[in-house]
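Work package 3, deliverable 3.1, input record:
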Amino acid sequence: MLQSCQEDLCEDVAYNPLRIGFYITENFEDQSVIVENISVKGLNQSEFIYDNEQAGMIELPLDVSRDECGFELVFYNEIRDTIKIEYSRNLTIISVECGFATFFEITDIYITNNLIESYSIKEYNITDTNEEHISFYLLNDAAD
Amino acid sequence: MKNILVFICLMMLLINPFIGYSEDNNLFQRSIRVGGEVSYPIRSVFMPEIVQYEGSFDIEFSKNWFAKVEAGILNVNIDRQDYDYYSDGWFYRIGFDYNLLEREDFRNNDILYFGIRYGYSNQAHGANNIIVWDGYWNKEDPYTTSIEKNYFATHWSELVGGLKTELYRNLFIGWSLRLRFVVFETDDSLLKPYVVGGYGKGDDRVTVDFNYSIFYRIPF
């Protein structure tokens, strides 16, 4: 049981996903929104990270073997956006038990603008904290 | 050993103008003290992958004022299924201690002190066979990488407080509590040390440490 707890703890510490929050802008104010239906998978991947789920924020695993990766986001089963993230990687030894984890620093981001109107990078460093890194501002009409 | 004796003699010559029996208090006696840290070797019994040894030297150059040098070595060798990590290094700290206890008896040499240090560590470290999981992109074939041996330097400042008690004639045991702050370190985006010799955990900007030591005092 202790071994299992240790493994879970190590996985939590070693897994450092990119966190993206969804917002709309109304009357010049940003409001967080929950997307009622979203599917997400990595580019050229078959496995879905989110499969027709409801989400106000998504967590995307970055590719630890490369300095860039991309994702396809499908909103409401019809509106498709693609994002590409470029980053630098930094291996850090977490503890003797858990070994190494990869921390990232976002260097650039490219998006298509079908439902995603714009974005802002709130935190460039992706480490073992739970903060949001990027905000996506969605088109109001489509998000309703 | 010969070099150490030469170093001690040189130190005594250098500070000679500042030391001596105080005119208003003849309880002050010139002395040096050599010591060895014992908590690091005890810790390595429970965690044999991290081995650290440290010795110290101090001299009471003026009543209640001690100049102090501490130095040691660090060896880390961790061999796991998903990584191998190694680190070899050395470190030193230099600074001063001030004794707060009033000396009421010529034979009483206990001290309660606080002091400051400047610390420096230099280590070579690297890692092999690192298997990194992201849980999605490389499921079939986990990404394996290595980090070549490179050198990492750390500079820190330190506040220290503690007690040294005479167990037997000129033989002391003591503890100290230390608060350390990194001042400057090598800018290395590849790998930060797991442990910095004489400092503590490599990715902590502030560390707290508790040490036990034994000392031998040599009056002259």
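The first helix of chain A runs from residue 2 to 14.
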